[in-house]
Amino acid sequence: MLNKPRKQFKHVCPRNCYSNCTMISTVENGRIAELNGNSNHPYTKGKLCAKGFASIEMNDHGERLKFPYYQEVKGSGKFRKITWEKAFQIIISEMVSIHKRHENFLPLGFLKGTGNLGVHHFVTEQFFSSVGRTTKLHNSSSTFESFTALGQDMRSGGDPLTIKEASLIIIWGANPAATNVHLVPFIIEAKVKGAKVVVMDPLYTQSAELADLFIQVRPGADGLLAHLLILSLLEADTVDKEFVDLLDGFAHDIENVRGMDKKNALLEIGVSGEAIALLLKWYKGAGAVAHVIGNGLLRHADMERNICAIKALAAAHSDVRRAGGGVFVRQGAVKIFTNQIASDVSSFKGRTLDLNNPKGRSLPSNTELPLEMLWISCANPLTQAPNPQFWQAAMREIPFVVTVGHFFTPTAKMSNLVLPTTTHFEEFDIIVNDYHKGIAFNEKAVPPYHESRSEWNIMKELALRLDKAIPGVCSFPVHSSEEEYLDAQFNDRVYEIYGVRGLADLKRRIGPLFPASADSALKRFEIVTKGIVENERTCEFVKSGQTSAGKSPTERLPFWLLTPHHPYRLNSQFHFLNLSDEKEACVGINAEAARKLGIFNGEIVRVFNNQDSIEIKAVYSTGVPQDVVFIYEGWYPNCDVNVNRLIPSAGTVTASEGQCVSGALFNTFVNVEKL
Ligand SMILES: Nc1nc2c(c(=O)[nH]1)N[C@H]1C(S)=C(S)[C@@H](COP(=O)(O)OP(=O)(O)OC[C@H]3O[C@@H](n4cnc5c(=O)[nH]c(N)nc54)[C@H](O)[C@@H]3O)O[C@H]1N2
Ligand SMILES: Nc1nc2c(c(=O)[nH]1)N[C@H]1C(S)=C(S)[C@@H](COP(=O)(O)OP(=O)(O)OC[C@H]3O[C@@H](n4cnc5c(=O)[nH]c(N)nc54)[C@H](O)[C@@H]3O)O[C@H]1N2
Ligand code: SF4
Ligand SMILES: [Mo]
Hints:
There is one protein chain. By secondary structure, the protein is α/β, with parallel strands linked by helices. The protein is 31% helix and 18% strand. It is built from 25 helices and 26 strands. The strands form six sheets. It has an eight-stranded mixed sheet with strand order 5-4-16-15-14-6-7-13. The chain has a six-stranded mixed β-barrel with strand order 19-23-20-22-21-26. The chain has a five-stranded parallel sheet with strand order 10-9-8-11-12, sandwiched between helices. The termini are far apart. About 7% of the residues have low confidence. The structure holds ligand MGD (2 copies), iron/sulfur cluster and molybdenum atom. Molybdenum atom binds next to helix 5.
């Protein structure tokens, strides 16, 4: 038998994930025959998750978009395959028409989601920032956007590799066993060395199984629990006074905690005094404490108060200056490459619309120029955004919608033009991670699937045509290759952090690159200080003795609806991957609560609130409290359940600026009834 030529290529998984694993593909006859993790990575260590391995399946999936498709009437499903040339013609003629009537491109909106976070993919935003004033839509329901809006202060993630040194690990509202699998070995290593692990979550999750102590906290009550811990440190006189005295005004704030009503706090937290007593004991006796913070905190109104309370705790116990201790949270949105900076909300020159801010949440139809065209890339708002009904209506209203992606998602189906694009196996890219903070180069291994084009190629071709149609209107730099384009995105900031000047420099390095002074104790100290000093309301919250959410289930809507991330999906991606016991969407409900409603295990029920109603299979769960139900978020094409239809578009409020920064997706209340 002839030996087939095999070639290997280096990749980085570009998903919006804690890990951004490095991987190696083996190509045979122009197709990826094998995919493995690359052991060059100190965080991911050559291991991929199920989704990572399934990315080969995704690459060759029969339902992947092969050609550009056009439909005159959005949602009609009457798509016809067209050529790229025709697609470009349609887009240019829309753009020219807008420009003719308005002499600018403000009626042209664009939305870039988190489907692929590679530097390459910011090309879309760069293009729409290079044609004068346009409209940037941002939907801060993703963690990526939330952190962007929170700014530098929240970019305080400690180095997760150090967690193995912690003597106590508290996981606040995260489920790493499902969503951050590479953290698990570090947690186990700490456990082997004697560390205790505490999981705070209203749900008994996959991560709770790793815990020495599981605290089934009431949603939104984490800040109160953190203050209780501060109080116990004060009472035992173990607060790091020397450290807190350095934090201007903080010593006074922390003293306020003495005034809190412990009994009431325990009621609000909803946990037995015994469990809290054990936690207090461990905390007081602990060396470095690692606080791992996840979306469970970010998805509530007033999330900043809860997080600041945890930061205050980490400072009071000087966790932030002990190896292995501190606050570990995703840094979010590292925008340092040139094409990422130009289009950031903070520096964007055109009009911005924050669709999570109830005030900004309407299309500019009467007041300003209405949107006439919308470009969506790397996003699936019809399943991922809160209140997708709004998006559905908006997309119907906007005359011309383009979606660039991989599959016929609900969002693609509501578009006029659907453009097929390449995957990370078919394009060059640079991936910047916002958790372990490594950057690495992604090689192209195989040609584009059918007629897919890379996003750089699409935008470059558009730039060339637009320049012909309206000379001088577009300043998008036209490079001759993807690699040349990526090379041009390096700048002094990248050099300052990573010590590389260009692509050749990055390629020469073996394995991912990490910032030289990633998280010195000093830097973390400064960040924590800033967070505490700026947040004057931290301690008021304790005095009032309320949960941070300030909202609770009511008689009419007696359940919190939590919609965390699916263990075998990535947001709306990998919809074809059926590894769970439950193949369809289902709602997890406390068995006792279900029985009271006469609901059997496996029965289809109605879950509803003021916004909408969905029909979904009920599954009894012992891990859910009586007043909580949960449904994994995502896209369920096989049963048409869209859980976000129940989720209002309320933002969360940051104490320091009073701005809405993130979707308070978990502040949703519902009722459940038999059909
Ligand atoms: N398998 C998989 N991995 C992923 C993703 C995915 O979709 N699937 N998505 C990626 C992305 S984009 C993100 S942002 C991350 C998200 O990863 P995580 O930060 O782990 O977020 P969630 O999965 O939403 O889990 C949050 C947990 O918080 C709990 N929770 C809810 N409210 C509260 C509360 O008030 N207090 C406390 N203490 N807990 C609460 C929920 O019950 C849930 O168990 O994962 C990334 N990794
Ligand atoms: N109810 C509820 N809703 C949530 C959440 C929750 O916890 N609960 N979590 C929120 C969070 S944390 C996040 S991050 C968001 C994520 O929501 P989105 O930002 O929409 O991200 P994804 O669903 O991962 O991917 C969006 C689309 O990008 C496409 N895509 C993938 N790669 C590429 C590419 O290279 N190019 C292009 N053009 N397209 C590509 C995918 O096919 C997919 O259709 O969802 C949010 N929605
Ligand atoms: S989804 Fe995350 S854990 Fe899985 S392969 Fe990609 S980066 Fe790694
Ligand atoms: Mo996210």
